[in-house]
Every structure is written in structure tokens, then in C-alpha cells.
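Exam review. A common question shows you a sequence with its C-alpha cells and asks you to describe the fold in words. Practice with the pair below. Do the first one on your own.
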Amino acid sequence: MKNSYLAGVFLAFISGIIWGFSGVCGEYLFTNKHFDPFWLTSVRLLASGLILFTIVFTKSKFKVFAIFSDRSALFDLGLYAVFGLALCQLTYYFTISYSNAAIATTLQYTAPAMIMIFVCIKERNFPTFREFIALVFATSGIFFFATHGNFQNLVISKEALIIGLLSALCVVIYSIAPIKISQKYGTNAVLALGLIMSGGVFWIFYAIFGGEILPSIDFSAFLVICAIVFLGTICGFSLYMIAVNFIGPKRASLVASIEPLMAALFGHFWLGSKFVFFDYLGFTLIILCAVLLSKK
């Protein structure tokens, strides 16, 4: 049990690092290559889903389709695919396009508070003292990082704020919706089908409304897209879903809140972002949150 718990914390931590890097990759494509967030979301989801599905099908054959005979599970899969995976990625990328990766991840990580409230209401209990302190560390770290200690210092557009909070709500959905079906049909099978469903729907809508199907892609953009697909989507979501199965959505989302820190660090070393004292204070609090939750 203890090993499973530590493994869950570790996997959630790694998923946060991967997502932080993936977010900066998206920022690079939007600012330097002028990509459409809708196109990138569609390609990311569909390509990742097809690759992961091939891997799952090779191992389990037609068992991967078993979920389609279960109406209740199919509803959860659709909820997870559209309102979890698809809208989470789309709103996240649009937030980046209106601001940057660090702000987008900061807004998205208001999700742990939403998840904790939801789970506590559902289970009719209060968070443990350690969970409460970890939540305080996480939210305080995000506050200092985003505002430098003063809400008036949060320079962000209304579009970025609203869409960023919607992204956080979608995090709640993809953290909770697939738990039962993942345990029954397998994490990777559910993720693969969810990615294909969400990516396919978005791609059809994008094509119908006149989106550019194949924009100009140079070698550097191709490498960044591959990193987003393989690392940010396949690896990131797989590890996070496994972590949720081990330690639950509350702890997994809190540990993965390392993502804003990693987005800021990758942005600093790659895109030249600058930091001040309050940034480092926020980073420290977020790391303390992860450390606190690593002890059961």
C-alpha cells in the first residue's frame, strides 16, 4: 500500500513536470510560429489517441472495444473525452495564446480546490489536516507566483482569466470522470479512446468552419509538436491517470501542481522569462505542497 501511494505521488509529480514543458512548447508555437490553438488541440488529441490506441490494441486486441457495450461507461467516456480532455486542452491553449504558459497553468491549478470541495461534499467529510495545509501551500504558491503578493499586479486579460478558470473546471472533470471506467477497462484503453473521440470531434468542427488543415510546419515546429504529442499528451495523461488510481484525484491534482513551477522554469531558460522574489516564494510553496503529500 505504501509503495503504491509513493508511486502515485511520483507519477503525479512527473506528469506535472511534463505538462509544464508541454505548455511552454505550445507558447513557442503560438508566439513564434503563429499556430491556431484549435488546430494544435485537434492534432494533439487525435495523433496521441491513434498512437496510444495502436499500442493498446497490440496488447489487448478487440478487448479495447469492450467499453462500447456498457452504456453507463460509454456516457462517462464521452463526458471525459469532450468536457475533460478536449475542452481542457482547448481552453488551456487559448489561455496561453491570450497570455503565456505560466499564467495558463497558474489559473488551471485552481482545480485542486474545486476537486477537494467536490470530493469532500460527495463523501461528506472534511479534508485531513495534511491535505488542508498542502492546499494552503499550493494556493498560496500560485497566488504569490501570479500576483507577486498583490492582486492588482495580476496583469491578465479578461479572456485569459475566464478561459483559464474554465480550463480548471475541465481539470476537475478529467480527474474524476474516468476513475471507475479506468479501473474496469484499463487506463490506457480509456485514455486512447477518449483522445480519439475528442480529437476527432474537434477536427471535424475545425474543418467544417474553414480552419487551415495543414499550416506551414518547419523542422523545429515539427519537433515541438512531437514533444507535445508524445510527452505532453501520451506520457503526461497516462501517468496522471495511473496516479489518480493510486492516490485519488485530490492528492494527484495537488502533487501535479508542480506544473506552474515547471512552466515558469522552462519559459525562463527557453523563452527568456524573468522572475523576482515572489516567484521563488511561490515555487517553494508549491514544492512544499508536493513534499507534504508524499508522506501518507
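Now try the second one, then compare your answer with the model answer below.
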Amino acid sequence: ELTQKGRLPMLRPPQRQPDGAIMAIDAATRRSLELTQTLAGERKGSLLAAIDRTVTGAGARMLGEWLAGPLNDSGQINRRQDVVQYFVNDPQLCDAIRRALRQCPDLERALARLSLGRGGPRDLLAVCTAMRRAAAIRDLLGTHPADLVGVPDILAELSADLGHQQPLIDALSHALKPEPPLLTRDGGFIAEGYHAALDEVRLLASESKRVISGLEARYREESGIERLRIRHNNVLGYFIETTASAGDRLMRPPLNETFIHRQTLANNVRFTTVALGELEREITQAGGKALAIELELWEALVATLSEQGPALQRMAQALAFLDVTAGLATLAASERYIRPQVDDSRAFHIVAGRHPVVEQALARDAAIFVANDCDLGADRADGMAGQWLWLVTGPNMAGKSTFLRQNALIAILAQIGSFVPADTAHIGRIDRLFSRVGASDDLARGRSTFMVEMVETAAILNQAGERALVILDEIGRGTATYDGLSIAWATLEHLHDVNRCRALFATHYHELTGLSDRMAGVANVTMRVREWDGDVIFLHEVTAGAADRSYGIHVARLAGLPDAVLHRAQQVLDKLEGEAVSNPDKRLAQDLPLFTAAATMAGNPGAKAPEPGPVETEIAGIDPDELSPKQALEIIYRLKALMK
């Protein structure tokens, strides 16, 4: 009411949503999973961009709404899946509907502008065109034989919202020109033949040119001046113009009784007449009267449209629903997605699951995504309790975070009614989804990276129930070694004993893998790697077992750290690992263990330093002050040869 005083948009009536009707996803989880935009704030690279195959603006908006609130009712989920399956089974019908939708304007936005009084003739024409497209789509759904599968109930319900507006279509088609102007104040948007009085006024305006031409010919004949012209501008209106020499004749009797002097210029003289003034008034009045009539007709048409507002809103929603489901069917066919089984169990069994965003990015580079299984089933077919908490270990860059995210995204896709990137999938509905992936601070609120991590972890442990899905990556890494290990240990125990929810827990604390021996619901899995000639090859495969090292120095080498830093890091690592083996009960300095290692090594004068290479030996023997330019150049060539 503050921005559009006295007018309200054509809103859908509010509907009470039962508690737990949708999957609850908090802001941190939406951000870390990059549902609608990436961490950089871009749409490209998000889940929405990867699955969006809609062809209308309303469909794209509805798909975003579905991602924001996945369903938590297995019956409603399966109804959506039935429609997607119907279109997958009949690609010809799917393509025909998408072709019709491409020609459909944004009905929802046009109705909103018209209801606020901000719409124009083109919005009215857009509503008319959208109703025509809706009727055509209804005919496609109504006449198509259900020879593959039965027509889903939801499609039959939508058909009722797509038609029955033919009288309104006929009225708007008869009233509007095929190409109306943008604004109502410009006039000229009502078609000829729609209103008799308007046609008469327009006829006068159109005939004015012929009348003026006749009047000009008469005055030219009466005055004997061949170069006499009737012209028009916004200051004088219509006037008679002639040369300065001929103007003297018009100002002398008897012609001065007809021609009234208006203006003298350097080369021309301008006149008017009583007849020309009366004709100008009639033309001006005709133009204003025509616009007034058109505005009255406009208000009547908009009022008629407003009476059908609820029906048109349902039509807009039906068109958007068809756009989303047909787009999801197109996505499933092009990306090899399958229909997941979604029910009220606590299963989470995915065979050959793939990350929907990363897979498409790799495909653009002609690379193949490595699919992986995930089985967090708390319910098993044999009635035994499954292992609902996977402890994921493995090297950096091996794909742990991608594996965690892909399973969360598959769950979201399944519960919006979409097919999913996998060979098979059985998912018991999830009421809350939590993701603690990535690290960032919150300077505006005075929170460090570790504080943000702990706040998000606290929210998970306090809110996750048995039907939740939890994704945790590297809990405790933002603080000292033993503090972080203790927090990760206790968090894992709480998830297993208290929350008892399906969870993926990635960590570099290899000590946690021993908990699987005393926790029946915990299973150890690791990311496979292969060592070859001192290098590490990441296979990106998830397999049962636990990792014994993180290969952090190998990843640092891939990142381009200087050799001196890598060499020193390996020295410190060897020292720390050797000390851990020889003194298993000795705690390292909690905050700065590297300084302890460095001090120990510095206190050992017998430690052998690495031998200098030939390049270092050559450089050590150079006295820069004694070199001539020629000698310096020769040394450069010699050093280059040594490096080869």
C-alpha cells in the first residue's frame, strides 16, 4: 500500500502450509550447496542453472521455488514424478508442449502489471496470447491417446485450468490491434470496427489530410499563388505559408478579407483563415475524443479481465507447472537421469550417483565424472539396522567434498519430483537437510572462521532428527590439533547416539576411524588413490576402508609451492611421524607442534643437511664484483646447461 497506494497486485490467495510440509534447508546449507547461486554470487555453476530447462519466465521462477522448498510428502513427490515420467515416455508430446510454451508470454507478470494500473496495451495482448497458447496445450493433453502410461491425475486437473476462456479471448482479439503501442496514452490500440463512435472520430482525423489538401488547392486558385502551402507546427498549429513577395498580394484587398496575417519571417510570410481555424479545432477535438474513447474502452477491458483474475492465476500456475515438469523430463532424457524411489522409509541407497553440476562441467571438457555409490540406509530389507553414518577419509583433492555435496543434491532433486543422476536410487523422505561444508569468517558479526564452523555445527546437533540428512566436512580443522580432534570425536558420537540421522562425515582425523569398531551405525569409507613414481593419482572412487595418510604435501606440490618449502615440510612430517611412532603417549605441543619439531631438529647438530646441487655450487663460487659483462653472460649459459 505504500508503493502502490489504492491498488493491490493480483495475488494468489494464501494457503496454510502444514508444519513439515517441505524439507527444511537453512541459509548456511543453501549457500554451501550452491542451490540457486554459487559462492561467488553467480547463477552459472549453481544447481538451478544445471537443471533449468524451462522455456518461460514463470517456469524458471517456479523451479526456483521448488528448489527452495522440496516436498516432504512422498505422495505429492510421486505425483510430480508421474508427470515427469509421462513426458519422458512420450517425448513427442513433451516437445509439442514446450514449443507451445515458447510462444507463451509471461501471463503472471502481465496480470500483475494490469492489476496495479501499470500495464499497457501490450500486456493486454500478452494475456490474450497466453490464453490462446493455454487452449492449444489443453487440446494437446486432451486429444493425445494415453497409449504408453495412464494420464497422471495432476495433468487431468491442470487441463481444467487451461481452457474455458474462449469468450474472453474473442473479446480481446476483436478489441485489440495486432501490434498495439507500448503506452495507453499513445492511443491507437483499439482495432477498427470494435466501436462505431471511435471509428467516426478516427475517420474525421484520417480525412483531415484530404480536406486540408482540398483547402490548399482552393486557396491557391483564389490567390493565383502557385507556391502557397498549408503547413503545421506545434506553436502555430495549421497555417498558410508563401514567399515574401507573394505575401504582399495576400495583405492587399480583396484577398486580405480572407487571409489573416500571422507571422513574417525573412523569406516567408504566414497566414491563417477562419475556415482553416475551424478545421484545426475539429481535428484537435477529434484526436482528443478518440483517445478519451479508447481509454474508456481500456478500463472496461481491464475490468472484464479482473473478473477472471482467479481463473487466470490458476492458468498461469498450470502453464508454469507444465513448463517445469516438461523441462525436468528433457533434462532426464539428455543427462541420463533415472526416477528415484521416494517413500516413508529411512533408506538412502544410491547406486552410481553423480554430481549434477560437476558432471556437466566435465562434459563440456570431454571428461567423464566418476560415479559412486552411497548407502546410508537406516532401514534394511532384512530388518536389520544398517550403517547410517559414513565416515569419509582420504587425501585432499580426492573428491570428498564433491561426494558429500552430490548426495545432498540428489536428495533435493528427488524431493522436488525430479529424476536424479544415478543408476538407481531409493531415498526415504528427508525432513531437514544440513550441510557444514567449506570455511569462511563473518567479520560483520565479529565471528572467526572457527566460530562460524561451531555455530553451524551447533545448529545441526540441536535440530537434526532421525529423518534429517547431515553433511559434515572437516569439523574441528579451524583450531588446534587436539581441540579439533576432540570436537570432531564428540560430534560424531552425538550424531550416532543422539541424533541417529543419516550422515556423511568427512575428516582428516584418521584417529576417528577406530570408532567404527564400537559404533554399529558407523562405516568407514575412503577415497581411493594410487601412488606412481612418487606422484599421487586421484581415482575419485569411494571404497570401504580408512585412509592412513592425507597426501597434503603431494597436493602442495601440485599447487606449485617452492621446492625448498616442500623439502622442509617433508622433513618436519618425517620428524613428527617418527616421534609419534617412538613416543605414542607423548603429546605434541597443542597449538604450535611444528615449532617443537623445529626446535628438536635445531638441537641436533648431527642432522645431515641436504647436499648442494651443481647449480648451487657454481653460484657459490661466483664473485659478482669481478665479472665482466661477457663473463656474466657465459656463466648464465653455463648455469642453464647445468639445469638441463
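Model answer, second protein: The chain has 22 helices and 15 strands. Residues 145-149, 587-603 have pLDDT under 50 and may be disordered. Full marks require stating both points clearly.
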